[in-house]
Design a protein that fits this description.
This protein is an alpha+beta fold. The longest helix has 27 residues.
Length: 553
């Protein structure tokens, strides 16, 4: 028999359990993808690739030298051979910087052996892994960046026994490794040997060579773009292998475009589309980013409206490349739901409710302070509506979204009436009538303007020194796309050569997350070393060069 407070506790437990069960049932009933979610996640798990491994060895020891002409003011110069390093006491060298000659993503290891005396105490090292020289040369502390200090790739390790082999468990992304001896006994001496880096990725094939007539600059840009993409192709398309090491919809779209014309690992694209669908919110809203460890899960609350719309575009491109009707039909409810969601933000006059969208969503578009995104939002919505309707036609489902053509017509008319300045021949955004490249780009890609108007807009904005320029490679991709759409082929080629070629001329062996030719220290996070210097969204010259050989090859 249960007495007194024990009985009351049990009663409360039963009531709480019933309420929890009812709540769970209600949540399950509200899950718009309830019957599909587990199938998507199981399919995604089955597509998880086994990573290829390649052992890389350091080429040289280098020293860092200040150089005002080098990227961020630092360059690496050869200082000694690796053999000299191996054959010399690490206590005598104390600090060395190894150069592997290329960017790598993977795992670092080295061996320790005694030279004299008996190892009678632990030894301690500080290791710093860097994608660019300035990442080593810049002091990290006191840390003033806006992202976690832990993203910076410096590790202090203590080795208890010698001889031994040390393997760093954290996956690193780097070209340079700085080794500092910070603690050892005076009674024995030792050396480092067999330094290696086990590089990993999921790119299995070798893309075909470009035409012989291709310029050396374009070939080099393509090569660096391929390397950038390859480094980011892990068990998902990562945004950057150093940071954030996760799947973002915006990066997925651009990576999948480049992949379609190079490595053709369409299963990786499929896996990412399935993961995003399976880990979406119960109301059907896509989460902008997915983390894989310890098990795949969304970053709660990260809702980017422009990224959600690009999911539909990515799915349509995937279907076009693979003719995988089964997967496209399976994921169609997700694409359809994103359109249903965005329709709630379209006013009766055809204008997006920018104020409400800005309040309820993160509107990204570009890393650019001060960018007004009203025009861009109108443009990308029209663009995505068109792409979604094309997807529906490929699936013979256009009757399910039969209102889209009328919505597009209404939105285009509203854009011309409310956002276009006919005297300037440009789109102006927000109450300050801001002139930006982003506004013109998205109106052109949306097809709001005719061919003549589009060409005039892109030509005029480029002649306005005070117009807000793109902040990084992400928006520069869409700028190139808009130029090609408008028939400005030489301008598109010149842009790739000047912008991505600019990174190349400054020593890039992979393309960077952000790059402003006028400010090499620019960082969305207020600290340049935490920028990603191998970033997925900057790989798309590969897509342009290979899709449009008549322009670029």
């Amino acid at each position: 028999m249960i007495k007194g407070s024990c009985k009351n506790h049990l009663l409360r437990f039963v009531v709480l359990a019933m309420l929890t069960l009812l709540g769970t049932s209600k949540l399950s009933a509200q899950d718009v993808y309830r019957s599909l979610r587990q199938t998507w996640l199981k399919e995604a798990e089955a597509l998880k690739p086994v990573l290829s491994e390649t052992v890389k060895r350091p080429l040289n020891l280098v020293q860092l030298v200040k150089d005002q002409h080098a990227f961020q003011g630092w360059k690496a110069e050869n200082a000694a051979s690796v053999n000299d390093f191996y054959n010399t006491s690490i206590k005598k060298q104390n600090t060395v910087i190894l150069d592997f000659g290329e960017h790598m993503t993977g795992y670092f290891s080295f061996s320790l052996a005694s030279l004299s005396g008996t190892p009678d105490a632990p030894v301690r090292f500080k290791l710093t892994f860097a994608e660019v020289p300035a990442e080593i040369a810049t002091p990290y502390d006191p840390y003033k960046g806006e992202l976690s200090r832990a993203w910076l790739q410096d590790e202090t390790i203590t080795v208890m026994d010698i001889p031994t082999t040390v393997r760093i468990s954290r996956r690193m992304a780097c070209r340079y490794v700085k080794i500092e001896l910070v603690g050892s006994s005076q009674y024995f001496d030792f050396k480092i040997s067999d330094v290696k880096f086990t590089a990993v990725n999921s790119a299995k094939t070798i893309p075909p060579a470009l035409a012989r007539s291709t310029s050396s600059m374009i070939k080099n840009i393509d090569s660096i773009g391929l390397k950038t993409l390859k480094e980011c192709m892990q068990t998902v398309y990562e945004d950057g292998p150093k940071r954030d090491r996760r799947l973002w919809i915006g990066d997925l779209y651009l990576e999948s475009l480049a992949n379609a014309y190079s490595f053709k690992n369409h299963d990786l694209t499929k896996r990412c589309l399935l993961l995003l669908a399976g880990l979406s919110d119960p109301d059907g809203k896509l989460v902008g980013t997915i983390l894989e460890s310890p098990t795949p899960h969304p970053q709660v609350g990260q809702h980017l409206l422009d990224y959600s719309l690009l999911y539909n575009v990515t799915l349509k491109e995937y279907l076009t490349q693979t003719n995988d009707l089964e997967t496209a039909n399976s994921l169609w409810p997700v694409a359809k739901k994103q359109i249903e969601i965005v329709k709630t933000l379209i006013n009766k006059n055809g204008m997006m409710d920018y104020k409400r969208a800005s309040k309820e969503w993160w509107l990204f578009f570009d890393w650019k302070d001060g960018l007004d995104k009203e025009v861009s939002l109108q443009g990308i919505t029209i663009f995505a509506l068109k792409q979604t309707y094309d997807l529906a036609k490929l699936l013979n489902r256009e009757t399910e979204v039969k209102d889209i053509p009328a919505i597009i017509t209404s939105m285009i008319k509203a854009a011309k009436q409310n956002l276009y300045d006919p005297k300037l021949g440009l789109f102006v955004s927000g109450p300050q009538k801001q002139l930006s490249y982003a506004s013109q780009i998205w109106m052109v890609l949306a097809g709001v303007t005719n061919a003549t108007e589009s060409k005039n807009a892109l030509t005029k904005i480029a002649r306005m020194p005070n117009a807000l320029k793109p902040g990084g490679p992400y928006l520069y991709h869409y700028y190139v796309e808009a130029l090609i759409k408008t028939g400005m082929q030489m301008e598109a080629k010149d842009l790739i050569v000047s912008y991505w070629g600019g990174m190349l001329s400054k020593g890039a062996d992979t393309f960077w997350e952000v790059y402003d030719p006028a400010d090499e220290m620019v960082s969305p996070y207020k600290f340049a070393p935490i920028n990603s210097y191998c970033h997925a969204w900057s790989c798309t010259p590969v897509y342009f060069i290979r899709k449009y050989p008549k322009i670029f090859q």
